[in-house]
Write a structure and sequence with these properties.
Elements lengths: L2 H12 L25 H10 L2 H5 L18 H18 L4 H10 L8 H11 L6 H16 L6 H8 L10 H24 L10 H7 L3 H16 L9 H19 L8 H17 L6 H8 L5 H10 L3 H12 L7
Helix pairs in contact: 2-5, 4-5, 4-9, 4-11, 5-8, 5-9, 6-13, 7-8, 8-9, 9-11, 9-12, 10-12, 13-15, 13-16, 14-15
């Protein structure tokens, strides 16, 4: 018996009957020989962790565009916080921690530079539409490894696709990530907003703090405990209605006071304009994109708009700025 088979046997002996067992996966689009050490979801986690799109998250905006400080979240640190919250919940509920971690690490791979403002910019100019959760699946299925994709299991791709608020993941592990994403960004965005003097802890309405807590630590602890206690031995992951309503109320408060705050989003229109100008440029000049994107158009008959979105969405903040400067900002003339 291989190490992988022993691990799969352990899952059936220890994990909840509601867990997604590694040896019961719906599998990959392209069949592969099994690893003798790692079950399928652990392999998927490793593939995401070693991907180029994962590394680029470290230089993509979470909420604050180009903040002057080292302690503000990036898309990468957000992803790691989602993963940690999700793993804590999965471990407590005896669900598949490898699957949870793979979904969490991959859920934002398709995010644009400059956060949701970049997503909005591409969605406005691309007639095919642009949504980061769909793009994240496209990254792992088609764009990574120069068009080969990562060939992940169905369960991981389903969790990535359905991590947004309106999503309906088919596994409990995917449901954990969906809630953990919101828990992470609401709380760390409050922390960053306080650090950036956009918000004070005392500004948060008492109707929310009475339920959720009065600090980052309290809120994380209360929300995670609530999910665990409310989901034990059940075929669904959920909060109590009171906790969920308070979280949604706090989320709405953040949209009104932080996400749309001129101080926090002062450079947003510039960033959106820049990405839309880049989109128009590469639509007119697709041959200026890297070869792997040109091949998608010429050899795989992909729509140029979709491929241009692929290229721009894969950029980091700094790379997008550099390309814009290269194309549109005059350089000093030298002899």
């Amino acid at each position: 018996m291989t190490i992988r088979e022993k691990t799969e046997e352990w899952e059936h002996a220890y994990l909840s009957p509601y867990a997604a067992f590694s040896d019961s996966s719906r599998g990959r689009d392209t069949e592969e020989e099994q690893c003798d050490i790692r079950p399928v979801y652990q392999r998927d986690r490793d593939r995401i962790l070693h991907s180029k799109s994962f590394r680029r998250l470290k230089q993509k905006t979470q909420v604050f565009l180009a903040p002057a400080g080292d302690h503000y979240r990036t898309r990468l640190t957000h992803t790691l916080e989602v993963s940690q919250n999700a793993r804590t919940i999965a471990k407590a509920l005896r669900l598949n921690e490898d699957l949870v971690e793979a979904i969490a690490l991959g859920h934002d791979l398709g995010h644009t530079p400059f956060g949701h403002s970049g997503e909005k910019a591409l969605n406005e100019v691309c007639s095919l539409g642009f949504e980061h959760h769909i793009q994240s699946v496209r990254v792992v299925e088609k764009l990574e490894k120069k068009g080969q994709g990562l060939n992940l299991t169905w369960e991981v791709r389903d969790g990535i696709l359905n991590h947004q608020t309106s999503g309906h993941p088919h596994t409990l592990e995917g449901q954990i990530v969906r809630l953990s994403d919101k828990i992470a960004y609401i709380n760390h965005d409050i922390d960053d907003a306080i650090r950036g003097q956009v918000l004070r802890e005392s500004d948060i309405p008492k109707e929310f703090t009475d339920v959720l807590g009065n600090s980052l630590r309290e809120r994380l602890d209360n929300m995670i405990h609530n999910i665990v206690s409310n989901s034990q031995d059940k075929p669904e992951i959920s909060m109590t209605p009171e906790m969920y309503q308070a979280m949604q109320g706090l989320r709405k408060f953040m949209y009104e006071h932080v996400y749309r705050n001129p101080l926090a989003k002062g450079e947003e229109e510039k960033a959106q304009h820049m990405l839309q100008v880049l989109f128009a440029h590469y639509i007119s000049n697709p041959e200026e994109m890297p070869e792997e994107y040109i091949q998608l158009i010429r050899e795989q008959d992909e729509d140029p708009q979709r491929v241009v979105c692929d290229y721009i969405a894969g950029m980091t903040d700094q790379y997008a700025i550099a390309k814009f400067e290269e194309l549109y900002v005059p350089k000093a003339w030298r002899v």
